[in-house]
Amino acid sequence: xxxxxxxxxxxxxxxxxxxxxxxxxxxxxxxxxxxxxxxxxxxxxxxxxxxxxxxxxxxxxxxxxxxxxxxxxxxxxxxxxxxxxxxxxxxxxxxxxxxxxxxxxxxxxxxxxxxxxxxxxxxxxxxxxxxxxxxxxxxxxxxxxxxxxxxxxxxxxxxxxxxxxxxxxxxxxxxxxxxxxxxxxxxxxxxxxxxxxxxxxxxxxxxxxxxxxxxxxxxxxxxxxxxxxxxxxxxxxxxxxxxxxxxxxxxxxxxxxxxxxxxxxxxxxxxxxxxxxxxxxxxxx
Length: 285
Prior knowledge:
Residues 3-130, 144-283 form the EamA domain. Keywords: Membrane, Transmembrane, Transmembrane helix. This is EamA family transporter. Helices cover 76% and strands 0% of the residues. It is mainly α.
């Protein structure tokens, strides 16, 4: 169960990041965050009302609030980094954030076995190589790297926080709803401040209605990934769930190859193979 849901998290996050990166190339990153998360919050609000999840409210929701504050900052940095591209600059460094939930798991007493430790090391190395790291070049690439590191640790913090925000399925719906509402509020305030400073909130001053399905997909895939990660973390060691969920850069890199024709180099193919080997070690360990 842990491996299955964690790998589903990687797939969903990888596709959401790919879609968010494409949208940010045409629309300001803050607008992408607010609109996509707003759609997700609306859908979750309907689910919360339909399931009566309000009855699960408690002090643990403060973890969801904290995740909602950290999340927009991480998303904004990541989308801006993806827009600076190519995605091969950004995606491999996204794995650095896995250190946060893995560290939390170790602090709480989890002790992965030898096979799992080997799987963690191989998988993280594989993901880093699969992204095709490009650490040399113009200043814009160094800016992308810095933004990605900030985003990675932010995502890692969200991993750890949202896993503590609920213990039941209905509670998970409520926690994700609260997280998304805070996301929208925090992102909306940042967008308002940006507009007051003279930045444009929309390309050419008009909303790209044709891109609305893409906004919806990004927001809903992101929230679904959060949900599958929580399930994975509750059914097995956080150290294993976090590492398997961190494989999303491989999905982003493959999507970039398939849709944008970004060339995969030998190191990327080798990295994808290592990521697969690490996944098998984790799943069987």
